[in-house]
Amino acid sequence: MPYALGIDSSTQSCSCIVIDTDTQSVVAEAAVNFGECLPQYKAPSGFIPGGSEGEVHSDPLMWLDALEQLLGDLKAKCDLSKVIAISGAGQQHGSVYLNDRWPNCINNLDTKESLSTQIAPCLTRDTSPIWMDSSTSTECREIAEAVGGDSIVCSRSGSIAIERFTGPQIRRFYKTSPEAYSQTARIHLVSSFLCSILCGAEADIDTGDGAGMNLLNIQDWDWDTDLLEATAPELIKRLPKVAQGSTTAGKISDYFIQKYGFASNTPITIFTGDNPSSLVGMGASKPGKLVVSLGTSDTFFAAMPGVVADPQGCGHVFGNPAGGSMSLQCFVNGSLAREEVKDKFGYDWGQFTAALINTPAGNDDKIMVPFFRPEISPRVDLKAPILEGSDAFESWQDADAAIRACVEGQFINMKLRTDWMQLKPEVIYLTGGASKNDAIAQVAADVFQAKVQRLAVSGSVALGASLRAASHSLGLDLDEMEGQFCKPEAGSTIEPKAPSDAYKSASKVIEGLLRKR
Ligand code: XUL
């Protein structure tokens, strides 16, 4: 019974899964919601509310208390001495700032004290900026200017300088708290921080999470000297090394062996970011499969056949934990836009679906750029959609056509914006709330001309971590395991019905309208 453990430290909770690779089954799952289980941190949604100037921080000690609660819960559910491979993932971009006592501290943890009590004296910054932080516009500009512009930052690091990315966050810390910066001996990502704690030794940053920092060169997958210099002085000595996802970080430390009953010598594979881990957990670590998550905002990610950066500077390139690279692109106008169109006509979701069914693919050339708020893919400052078609349609008198135009417009824009990734999609894995809707899935299949499947996976981030651990430490074939653990829901496949050129002219119109903005 070889068990593999995958841990996911995300924005709102810390969760995990234990899989049995012999029987290809899930042995146990556990989750600790930060807001509910650790109310003392006053972070009901996982971050400290009320930050000024766009600051959004979390308490790294909360992540440690959650990890301990999680392992305590898990120990009651399964025999942790049977776990023979461990890995994990963290919310991307978040960073932890530590002094020179840190390496010794994690190497000598005492089971009589909690992790948080012992790590607290190692922090040079009490709280950690996370991915929701938007306080670093000035720093982004400074970094871009220093290296010759955003297109250079993008071609080197895979993304233009972005507020939530770790490099600009480090620069802001250096500028606002130079004293604390000088006392900082090590800066970890959430992923490498937790991995270090579990190993009792410094863990490397993997290329998946590392590429979310604006510091990593995606051509040679190592720190970029110019970007480091543009960010903060003597940064290289404060950062861990970079390594490919299939790297052993170390063995589980005595603290966890004694306290939770892990077997000694259990290997830990370096952690990655939540999105790269989800790529594996969705069964999409090989090129040819796209993952589209329909949520508040829509997210698109995929393993890439090569390493190219988005020439328009909207998308991101990260390392693929299974080797090579992956892309990620976010669309602000996701479910909220679908909801606004629905509400405009007082429809419920049943009527929304009926509208999609009752209207033809291509929508008789009634076209919408469906942005109700400023979009980031592409960057346009719209506050209301642009409509082009009949008079009734343009004056919001044609409810069914407006609903189809919204969903078609979203997927057409998604396809246009992700062309740079040079993907040849065979299958789209649709996830997130709206993915259950067959009519929406049909539009995705028609626009991308690829079959759409919904997976029966929940918690793809933790699952991806357990698969990575099993593949790397137990030598199991990742592709085969993805086939076993990431199966499509029965009857969930939707084939394209519309002809391949159904969206040719609408794509041109949408591109034209966007170019004018
Ligand atoms: C990706 C991003 C988020 C975080 C939190 O760039 O900011 O998806 O990884 O999930």
The count of DSSP E runs of length 2 or more, i.e. the number of strands, is 25
The global form is globular
What small molecules are bound in this structure? D-xylulose
CATH architecture of the largest domain: 2-Layer Sandwich
What is the CATH homologous superfamily assignment of the largest domain?
Answer: ATPase, nucleotide binding domain
User: How confident is the prediction overall: mean pLDDT?
Assistant: 97
Number of H/I helices: 21
Rg computed from alpha carbons, rounded to a whole number of angstroms = 23 Å
Distance linking N and C termini: 59 Å
Q: Helix/strand-derived class?
A: alpha+beta
- Across the major sheet, the strand order is 18-19-17-16-24-25
The CATH topology of the largest domain is Nucleotidyltransferase, domain 5
Strand portion, in percent?
Answer: 15-25%
Helix content: 25-40%
Poorly predicted tracts of residues:
none
Short description:
This protein has 517 residues and is α+β, with helices and mostly antiparallel strands.
Layout of helices and strands:
Blueprint: E1 3-9, E2 13-20, E3 25-33, H1 34-37, E4 57-58, H2 60-77, E5 83-90, E6 95-98, H3 102-107, H4 115-119, E7 128-129, H5 137-147, H6 150-157, H7 166-176, H8 178-183, E8 186-189, H9 190-199, E9 205-206, H10 207-210, E10 216-217, E11 222-223, H11 225-231, E12 242-243, E13 248-251, H12 254-260, E14 267-269, E15 272-273, H13 274-281, E16 289-294, E17 298-304, E18 316-319, E19 325-331, H14 335-344, H15 349-358, E20 367-369, E21 375-376, E22 379-380, E23 386-388, H16 391-394, H17 399-417, E24 427-431, H18 438-448, E25 451-454, H19 460-474, H20 478-485, H21 504-515
Parallel strand pairs: 1-5, 5-15, 9-12, 16-24, 24-25
Antiparallel strand pairs: 1-2, 2-3, 4-7, 6-8, 10-11, 13-14, 16-17, 17-19, 18-19, 20-23, 21-22
The chain binds D-xylulose.
